[in-house]
């Protein structure tokens, strides 16, 4: 079989079989990022919003997080524990944005208002009042905790394991355990159990 | 009294509830709970509180969260754009042109460089005469021999996920003294200067004497605050994928004032350029 002669350097550098095809189909990395976006977008958004960052800014941060993940994967970097990676990047960007905004975190009022608006419709009026009051108490305790304890509790509520929380916040496993125990004790007391 | 006779601690109960105990200890806790009503009641309280808290936490935020479809489409489009840019961005694609096209492109480029170079020189001269407000004062730019700029080996992911404390970290006192000595400044005048990173930590700059210099607070136009704005802007551009990290590092290290003009599309600090910002103090 005769190999056709090439008449330009481009043919050597970019033979037809290896030239990137102009395709509208997302790559494997893009598909993977989109799958992770569907899984983790809401938890990450909730976590960023919990820092007192407005929702539209939290949405921007979440986009930044997933674009960073896209570049991270494109560069062939580690795929180990991507959930922890996502929360770590979101955590840092949220802190940075909060600092830039110089806004005080005043989630309590809005959390309470939201809690009132979203009572469980299956409950009778008395049960609804009780349900809302309980939510208010729990959120008030959350907002009164030291920042590190709040982060531990929120990250745990989003399903992160202790070792992931410890790595993300730069604290020891024991510190995570103590923090969660302390916070749960306060929540139990506030709930009058 | 054997260990298993003691009640379980709250911490142990929380660890057990979260499945964070090792196998042996978990078996011990299960055995104790089977035998001890007190501890089982405490465990139930913990479990109930976790469930109530998780529900309250989610409900308080979920109502604020917009539907996923729009953001998903936006992310998809941005990724496609980034992927296309990284495919087409390589200068090696030039060789894909035919010889005739390559020659034409070379001629056009040569003409463009000649014309824009001439315009740039004229513009610089004119600006030098007319623009006192944006004049570069002594100390605004570091001595290139002493401070050429040093970057660490970092990825975009590292840079974009840096904690705020790392981005704005202070320079140790011992290193500050060395820098003052290197620049021949008296330590008594330390208050007149900020020890600034040439390549900012947020762009991968290293805490190295060759990446630090004393920037005078007294500069009226091109001072540390203006440079901070450039660093922040470049950091955002890098993390948004609009400028690659090595380019940002090179530009800011070569001439940060030129980089400011390039990335803010202006020939003078933005706060100076307009009276729209009467509350912004530009001078130090």
What fraction of residues of chain A sit in β-strands? Answer: under 5%
Number of strand segments of chain A: 0
* Average predicted local confidence, pLDDT of chain B: 78
State the end-to-end CA separation of chain A. Answer: 84 Å
Major sheet attributes of chain B: 2 strands, antiparallel
Distance between the termini of chain B: 70 Å
CATH superfamily of the domain at 26-104 in chain A: RNA polymerase sigma factor, region 2, helix turn helix motif
**Secondary structure category of chain A:** mainly alpha
Can you offer a commentary on this structure?
The complex is a heterodimer of chains A (193) and B (284). Chain A is mainly alpha-helical. Chain A has a domain at 26-104: Rna Polymerase Sigma Factor, Chain: A, CATH 1.10.1740.10. Chain A has helices spanning 9-13, 28-49, 55-74, 82-101, 107-117, 125-144, 147-157, 162-169, 173-190. In chain A, helix 5 packs antiparallel against helix 6 and helix 8 packs across helix 9 (173-190). Chain B starts with 9 loop residues before the first helix and ends in an 11-residue tail after the last helix. At the A-B interface, helix 1, helix 2, helix 3, helix 4 and helix 5 of A face helix 1, helix 3, helix 4 and helix 6 of B.
Keywords:
heterodimer; A: 193 residues; mainly alpha; Rna Polymerase Sigma Factor, Chain: A; 9 helices; B: 284 residues; two-stranded antiparallel ribbon; 12 helices
Write the layout of secondary structure elements.
The complex is a heterodimer of chains A (193) and B (284).
Chain A lengths: L8 H5 L14 H22 L5 H20 L7 H20 L5 H11 L7 H20 L2 H11 L4 H8 L3 H18 L3
Helix pairs in contact in A: 2-3, 2-4, 3-4, 4-8, 5-6, 6-9, 7-8, 7-9, 8-9
Chain B lengths: L9 H8 L5 H13 L1 H26 L6 H20 L10 H32 L25 H5 L3 H4 L5 H10 L10 E5 L14 E5 L7 H16 L5 H10 L1 H9 L5 H4 L11
Antiparallel strand pairs in B: 1-2
Give a concise summary:
The complex is a heterodimer of chains A (193) and B (284). Chain A is mainly alpha-helical and 193 residues long. Chain A is built from nine helices and no strands.
């Amino acid at each position: 079989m005769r190999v056709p002669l090439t008449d330009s350097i481009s043919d050597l550098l970019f033979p037809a079989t290896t030239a990137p095809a102009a395709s509208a189909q997302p790559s494997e990395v893009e598909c993977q990022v989109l799958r992770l976006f569907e899984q983790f977008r809401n938890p990450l958004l909730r976590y960023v919003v919990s820092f007192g960052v407005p929702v539209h800014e939290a949405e921007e941060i979440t986009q930044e997080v997933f674009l960073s993940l896209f570049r991270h994967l494109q560069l062939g970097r580690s795929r180990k524990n991507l959930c922890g990676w996502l929360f770590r990047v979101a955590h840092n960007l949220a802190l940075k944005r909060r600092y830039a905004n110089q806004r005080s975190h005043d989630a309590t009022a809005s959390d309470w208002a939201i809690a009132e608006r979203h009572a469980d419709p299956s409950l009778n009026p008395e049960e609804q009042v009780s349900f809302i009051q309980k939510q208010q108490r729990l959120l008030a305790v959350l907002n009164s905790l030291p920042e590190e304890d709040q982060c531990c509790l929120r990250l745990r509520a989003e399903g992160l394991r202790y070792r992931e929380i410890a790595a993300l916040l730069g604290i020891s496993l024991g510190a995570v355990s103590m923090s969660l125990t302390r916070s749960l004790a306060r929540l139990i007391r506030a709930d009058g159990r | 009294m054997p260990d298993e006779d003691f009640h379980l601690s709250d911490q142990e109960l929380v660890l057990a509830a979260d499945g964070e105990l090792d196998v042996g200890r978990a078996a011990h806790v299960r055995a104790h709970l089977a035998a001890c009503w007190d501890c089982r009641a405490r465990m139930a309280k913990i479990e109930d509180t976790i469930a109530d808290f998780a529900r309250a936490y989610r409900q308080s935020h979920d109502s604020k969260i917009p539907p996923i479809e729009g953001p998903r489409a936006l992310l998809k489009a941005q990724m496609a754009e980034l992927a296309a840019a990284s495919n087409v961005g390589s200068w090696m694609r030039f060789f894909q042109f035919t010889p005739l096209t390559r020659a034409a492109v070379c001629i056009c480029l040569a003409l463009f460089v000649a014309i824009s170079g001439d315009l740039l020189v004229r513009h610089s001269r004119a600006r030098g005469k007319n623009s006192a407000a944006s004049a570069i004062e002594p100390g605004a730019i570091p001595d290139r021999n002493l401070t050429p700029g040093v970057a660490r080996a970092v990825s975009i992911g590292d840079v974009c996920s840096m904690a705020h404390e790392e981005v704005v970290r202070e320079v140790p006192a011992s290193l500050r003294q060395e820098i003052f000595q290197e620049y021949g400044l008296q330590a008594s005048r330390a208050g007149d200067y900020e020890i600034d990173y040439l390549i900012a930590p947020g762009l991968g700059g290293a805490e190295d004497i060759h990446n630090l210099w004393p920037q005078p607070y007294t500069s009226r136009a091109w001072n540390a605050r203006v440079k901070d704005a450039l660093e922040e802007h470049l950091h955002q551009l890098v993390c948004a994928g609009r400028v690659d990290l090595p380019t940002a590092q090179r530009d800011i290290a070569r001439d940060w004032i030129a980089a400011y003009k390039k990335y803010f599309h202006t020939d003078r600090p933005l706060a100076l350029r307009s009276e729209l910002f009467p509350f912004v103090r530009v001078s130090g």
